[in-house]
Amino acid sequence: MAHALDELIAEGVSGRHVLVRSDLNVPLKGTTVTDDGRVKASLPVLKKLADAGARVIVTAHLGRPKGKVDPQYSIAPAAARLAELADFNVVVATDVVGEDAQAKAAALKDGEVLVVENVRYDARETSKDDTERGAFADELVALTGENGAYVDDAFGAVHRKHASVYDVAKRLPSYLGDLVKKEVDVLAKTLNNPERPFVVVMGGSKVSDKLAVIDNLIGKADTLLIGGGMGYTFAAAQGYKVGKSILEEDQIENVQRYLKEAPEKGTEIIIASDIVWSDDFSNDANTEIRPIEDLEGGKLGAEAEGLDIGPKTREIFAEKIKGAKTVFWNGPVGVFEIPAFSEGTKSVAQALVSSEAFSIIGGGDSASAVRNLGFDDAQFGHISTGGGASLEYIEGKTLPGLDALGA
Asked: Which residue segments constitute the domains of the chain, with CATH numbers given?
């Protein structure tokens, strides 16, 4: 049975070092944080601990530096944004478990927060060797001194068997951060006991990334709305031509199985009926809206590429969302980064905002899309901080970070 953060607070943390695994894996442009959603999401637990007098040590990763010190993946910009938003003192170390981290951890005062460098600068963090990971975990634990504790508040990393997520939790009294607890509570209810109708919007580029998710949702969701790059494999599986669109031919057989099994198990699958076809992957491209069954009848011909769902599909998706009580959305339904192909994704977000359904945005690109398209987090029921973690949870997988906490 996992222990909640409030239990640790009740035990007393004043003067104690508490190691917190946070999620500061934010997108950067140079040294500027372009989406601080995860930084903001990490603040409440850090504030709760700081207010209780804990000496907090934050571990987090950013990107994939592959076990080497690489300045472009420094945690410093994310830590700087944290310091701007926080009403407690934030100290930043220039290394992970080296001399600077050790000195600054030892010098922490009650209510202060230390952010150490990117844990993935150390190759042992992600090692598949238990001994190597364990040695790194021991060095992280050593930063906490005699009476340390561990709090996992990084839902975006709980699907990883990494030293700062899994092995540290085995070495210190460990607690579930409020952010992780909320994620688990919301996703468990969505998967096991959703208010119906339960509608799932699936997008993103590849079917292969979401095979197990679709498998687990057939029979549980009332409706699956399929868009984005993965939609063209669904279209091809129904015999439609998709030009130069993303297509995973090796998944057509799986998709045909889904299309057969879903209605038998009470799940309706809806794919795009019209597409924004394009002759180039750019905002200045020539585009044409045509039905999925009539690509070749258009001016762009058989070589066109589908980059967004069309207006009729947007209406159909919006109507299904309007009638839902619960909606889970993972993956944009078009190339939202390019304005010419952002309308489909924007229309899904707007439909969620306008509906009375409890909406769950499944992290990753979906969360980034709604923010970049001008929507506010508060307009949705729940925005997950973990794209991959939320998908694996919905798949029904055991997540190592949760398993280590007894959750």
From this structure: 5-180 (3.40.50.1260), 194-395 (3.40.50.1260)
